[in-house]
Design a protein that fits this description.
single chain; 103 residues; alpha+beta; Alpha-D-Glucose-1,6-Bisphosphate, Chain A, domain 4; seven-stranded antiparallel beta sheet; globular
Length: 103
């Protein structure tokens, strides 16, 4: 099933892209710790709150425009649910519109 969700962000596409791809930016709004290998096949891990971690693999990336990654909860190193494809895409000028999630 594909679930579309749009989030309007009052930033340009490059700044919005940085919010989910740069660990220092992630730590400012979404995660207490973050690691991202921003390349196809690279791993990422976001600790949203202590004991609640999301992990997956970068599938595809187009800097400033799109990142496709798998998504799954990986609490205590034991993935609770299978990774699912997730695509986040920047479209247009500010405000930037993001979101497409496949579940």
């Amino acid at each position: 099933m594909i679930f579309d969700k749009s989030v309007v962000v009052p930033l340009d596409p490059d700044a919005t892209f940085a919010l989910i791809t740069q660990p220092d930016r992630l730590r400012r709004w979404m995660a207490v710790a973050a690691r991202v290998e921003l390349r196809p096949g690279g791993d990422y891990r976001w600790t949203v709150t202590p004991g609640h971690t999301v992990a997956g693999t970068i599938v595809d990336v187009e800097p400033g425009k799109r990142v496709v990654y798998t998504w799954g909860w990986d609490d205590d190193g034991d993935r609770d649910e299978p990774s699912r494809p997730n695509r986040s895409q920047c479209d247009g000028d500010p405000p930037t519109d993001w979101g497409r999630h496949q579940i």
